[in-house]
Write a structure and sequence with these properties.
Radius of gyration: 23 Å
Number of strands: 20
Structural class: alpha/beta
CATH architecture of the largest domain: 2-Layer Sandwich
Number of helices: 11
CATH class of the largest domain: Alpha Beta
Helix content: 25-40%
Strand content: 25-35%
Number of domains: 2
Length: 469
């Protein structure tokens, strides 16, 4: 049995789509997905704002064109005998969407409940526990009471008096229950606009929605890395994200609203201020120079990275100026991330030595000398670049096969989305949650209450007018 499925990534600067064929072995029931095609287009910065559409019609057209391009690419493929690979035009039936942008916030919550004697954990008990936790979360983050939760990622459920560490504590007898979780939220209006833009053509049926950095982390990191302790740094065009994994779970996530384009802007400004030719440097020229000449050397960090302006720029060449601009900007970003990391390990009483490796991805990771600079800040043994192929298929329910020619950075987010959609637990498994609202016809509904929705996710209950896909 074959079925065509698609992963779409909608971000501030790019829309991408990959289409694969889902096959199921009738004898063994094993499933696999073979990626067949991919397409990607850049988005005009005026059309998207921090991850949410500004122009619904144009984004809808762009999504439709990218999907159509990927579908047509499959329809044009030939077999070895020069006959069509498929007899009829290929159309994807199910679509999975991931989103990313600085308008999305990640909230760290925790449940912690102690009992005098062991109790069998039922959904009603979890409901009560999370009600208390969410009250605390709403007190800590009062602005989220009307937000939409697009993706919730709980860690392991543990108990103080035993060695329990499980993804699902239901029906277990425990005297205490502890769980740290991350909820990804944005405005209800923003996520409703995303859904409308993605499905506006009428031909795209979104099954589930995910947060791109979470999907990419699951795609790039091996089970062993996530168990031992690893940090994933995604250095993108407009933002930089840090994800911290330990004991197999995502424990901490932060996003900084600055990326590679900020470096380009700094280079452009300093070159126009200090260059000697008298010519005006454009943004495109500065971007080209950054790609050709950017490099960092931690040995040249001024004042331990605290200096913020190349004060001696008048006395250096353009190439040296570019390198210094890049170094100063990256040192500022890494200083912020380093502080977040230290706060996290101190709060959770985790030694820094528990994290021996960092995986880099995004365009910024390709700057020469970046790996050594990261080591300098985080004191880790290994810094490796993230590949554009899955780290490991061990333990996955659905294997993803991606041809080498489609393993490109432009397609990474969409491929990771499809991979995550096929292997993430269902909405009822206490691990990944999305919801559809029948009345409003939107993916998450126009007004989503964080209190009700996270509680509904963790307990498996929900309003009668809601349904899971």
């Amino acid at each position: 049995m074959e079925k065509f499925i698609a992963g779409i990534s909608l971000e501030t600067k790019r829309v991408s789509c990959v289409i694969g064929v889902l096959r199921e072995n009738s004898e063994t029931s094993e499933k696999s997905v073979r990626i067949l095609s991919a397409a990607s287009r850049e988005v005009d910065v005026k059309l998207m704002n921090r991850g949410c559409p500004n122009n619904m019609n144009l984004i809808t057209q762009l999504v439709y064109k990218v999907v159509e391009e990927a579908e047509n690419s499959i329809s044009s493929k030939k077999k070895k005998d020069d006959t069509p690979l498929y007899d009829s035009p290929v159309k994807a039936s199910d679509f999975y969407l991931s989103v990313h942008g600085s308008d999305f916030i990640c909230l760290n919550g925790r449940i912690e409940k102690n009992y005098d004697t062991a109790r069998v954990i039922k959904k009603e008990i979890l409901n009560e526990i999370f009600e208390d936790s969410l009250d605390e979360l709403k007190t800590k983050y009062p602005a989220i009471s009307g937000s939409a939760i697009i993706h919730t990622i709980p860690g392991k459920f543990t108990s103080k008096n035993s060695h329990v560490a499980t993804d699902n504590p239901l029906d277990m007898a425990l005297s205490s229950l502890i769980c740290d979780y991350i909820a990804v939220a944005t405005s209800a209006e923003g996520i409703d606009n995303i859904n409308t833009a993605a499905t506006g053509s009428g031909d795209i049926n979104i099954q589930r929605i995910f947060y791109t950095p979470v999907a990419v982390g699951e795609y790039l990191l091996s089970t062993m890395e996530k168990t031992r302790g690893v940090i994933l740094l995604d250095m993108g065009r407009l933002s930089t994200t840090m994800s911290i994994y330990k004991d197999g779970s995502l424990l901490f996530f932060r996003e900084i609203d600055t990326g590679g384009e900020n470096v380009t802007i700094n280079i452009q400004e300093y070159l126009n201020q200090f260059q000697k030719t008298g010519n005006e440097f454009s943004f495109q020229q500065a971007e080209k120079l950054k790609k050709e000449r950017a490099a960092v050397n931690p040995c040249f960090l001024p004042n331990n990275g605290k200096n913020t302006t190349p004060t001696d720029a008048q006395d250096v060449s353009d190439e040296e100026l570019i390198k210094k601009c890049v170094l100063i900007h990256l040192s500022e970003v890494l200083s912020v991330l380093e502080n977040y990391f230290k706060e996290f390990i101190q709060k959770n009483h985790i030694p820094q030595s528990a994290f021996s490796s960092i995986v880099l991805t995004g365009g910024g990771s390709e700057i020469k000398g970046m790996q050594n600079l990261i080591k300098e800040y985080f004191s880790v043994e290994l810094v490796r670049p993230g590949q554009t192929a899955p780290a490991s298929s061990f333990g996955q329910a659905v294997k993803i096969e991606c041809p080498v020619e489609l393993q490109k950075m432009d397609y990474l987010a969409a491929t990771a989305t499809l991979h995550y959609a096929m292997n993430a637990p269902s909405q009822n498994d206490l691990c990944t949650w999305n919801m559809t609202d029948e009345e409003s016809g939107s993916l998450l509904g126009r007004v989503v209450n964080i209190y009700e929705k996270i509680t509904s996710f963790f307990t498996g209950s929900g309003k009668k007018d809601n349904k899971n896909k």
